[in-house]
Amino acid sequence: MKLLWLDLNSSYAHSSLALPALHAQIADDTTIEWCVVSATINENTGSVVNQIYHHQPDIIAATNWLFNHEQLLHIVSRAKALLPHCCIILGGPEFLGDNAAFLYKNKFVSGVFRGEGEEVFPLWLKVWNHSKE
Q1: CB distance 42 to 60 below 8 Å
Q2: Does the predicted TM-score (pTM) go above 0.85?
């Protein structure tokens, strides 16, 4: 399984801590191939989507913040159009409310994790991976 972490920040000086925290939880799982696309909200959307496409991930995961929300959804919706098999999973502080309404409105997103996902994301990955075998 190839998991792509989309690290979309306000600048390169403000990198997300979620990736190292999640990676530490499942670093010993040899069935997961990790790749990262790092970008800022000011970069060209097409360029970021192109980087994602070239990795051909099975899963795209990202943290959704207030500052990157619009750009993140624009990027992952375009990535999903190019990679229809890809599972898009989002997490972070923006998913503390009505997540059902969000998922209904954004059908290209496969699922969201409410709040911090460092504990449940590794469990979900195992279930997802076994469902594909």
Answers
A1: no
A2: yes
